[in-house]
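Hi team, as promised in this morning's meeting, here are the two structures we talked about. I've kept the exact order from the run log so nobody has to guess. The first one is mostly here for context; it's the second one we should focus on when we meet again. Sequence first, then the predicted structure tokens.
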Amino acid sequence: MLKNKVAVITGGTRGIGYATAKLFLDNGCKVIIFGSRAESVDKALSQLNEENPNYPVEGYYPNLNDYEEVEKTILAIAEKYGKIDILINNAGISSSTPIDQYTVEEFEKIINLNVVSMFKCIRATVPIMKEQGEGVILNTSSMVSISGQPSGVGYPTSKFAVNGMTLSLARELGKDNIRVNAVAPGVTETDMFKSLPEPLIEGIVSKIPLGRVGKPEDIANAFLYLASDMASYVTGEVLSVDGACRS
């Protein structure tokens, strides 16, 4: 579905990002993953090479809060591959700190990575996509961007902003043949989720109409659809992948 495409995936070393990278590779895409540090990137690349030594994948670890570093990396990728077809902004962090314990520093850290760094990656990539005459930008939102969450206000605030940026850029960039969409995962089976006590997991699952938590592959499938030509007339959408869990 993505034969000969080139995709950059931030937060691509584990969880949803890693599953998306693998699925894209299986569908003929050349993939560049971004991680937070060299060790995590090297580990992810090693795992992918174990899956298939012929995967066309490489990784970088730019500081996503440093625009000059982001732009330099994006331009180097475009020069090497001749294009960037797909940008997936998946890097992000969460928290559940109550408001009366929330520090300004914690709030700013979440906003900076989940929103500001996403803007920086998009800002560096859009001129390349405009010049080549097409492109796809996909952003990782969350179910809490629709319903909010009981504590940890920084995370849902950031994801509401992700939705706003997605819808606005879809309207702005449509004339340039650049589609912009987001995927809003629900509760997903990540390493953090697996470490929760079993009774707590059972309580969470009981609130999901489909009766299970999502797998990273479920979210990756949504990204694959939106990145492919099957979604050529889909832009400005926030696709919920949450088993109908809305709270």
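And here is the second protein, the one for discussion:
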Amino acid sequence: MEVRLEELPSGLAVVVVPTKLYVNRPRGNGEGYQPDIQVQDVAWSTAAFRRVVERDLEQAR
């Protein structure tokens, strides 16, 4: 992985922008990814994520 450093206009900080190159990637540049399990809760938390995953596992049985 390569990184690029960009100084903010204020000069008070620097942003590190990582750049990855994927070889034989199954989807194209800019193509969105639809996960198999989607979390619809507004509050993203570990507990909410676990509930969704556990519900999906129960349905798979």
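Starting points for discussion:
The chain has a mean pLDDT of 86.
The CA atoms of residues 37 and 56 lie 7 Å apart.
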